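Shift notes (night). Ran Chemotaxis protein CheW while the centrifuge was going.
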Amino acid sequence: MSMVLGDALSLLLFRLHSGRLLGINLLKVNEIIPCPTLTKLPSRHPHVRGVATLRGAALTVIDLARAIGEVGRSDSQDGCLIVTELSRSRQGLHVQSVERIVQCSTRDVRPPPAGAGAKAFITGVTQIDGVIVQILDIEKVLHEIAPVLPEEIDEQLLTSAERGLLNGRRVLVVDDSHVALQLTLAALRKFDLDCQAVRSAASALELLQSQAESGQPIEVLVSDIEMPEMDGYNLVRAIRQHANIGQTYVLLHTSLDSTMNTEKARAVGANDMLTKFSTVDLSKAMLRAFQSLA
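Came back to this:
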């Protein structure tokens, strides 16, 4: 599997107590451990089973079945924990069992069915050996339990000249996660940027082309990496192949914390990469972008 191409997706398949089969991007998984003894907190969120101690550090343990609308088994000590790390936080997902790791192509991942609704907690659907696998939207699960709010921006964070540099500049945000999209837009609009948003790479390409043809080109694209049908890496490749939009500045904005991802981002031609979600870091990334375009 080529780590530069960015088209392959490794999924960890697991089951909930109901038998439901789900997958999670392997890059978001730190480790898998037996369910440890938990300390229950009286004021905990109803979807949080408790807190475990893992190598001296506290780890919040989420009853994943309950968090996505199924009947959980909060008093059960069976099952295991999938320890995930993303968007600058670490947590354990309590599941019934872990099955195996499989590889698929992002091109074979389809968006959730139109009727799935906002509470579906899945970010895509694919087939593995003829069996339908739903890919968990872990960001949505975490946001429901502990909503991420854009940080309040200190007026001194940007000088008046820097604010002037950003004011009214054209930015397009693409992210298949509604939660992530709204957080990013809210942060960018604090800097008076002219923002548009789409939910897929194909829509982003189409809008970049139409804006360029109209004489009002998008200057900076802020793109998620993990998206169904075409991921962020392949979106960058496609942009670089088009003469009229090939010079668009691209910031890849990802929930994954990995040096390897930065190398992959550079290899496909991205200008910058940032881990979600920090309004301050995003503001600095926007300054880097528009200073380079000045």
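The longest strand covers residues 97-105. The two ends are 39 Å apart (CA to CA).
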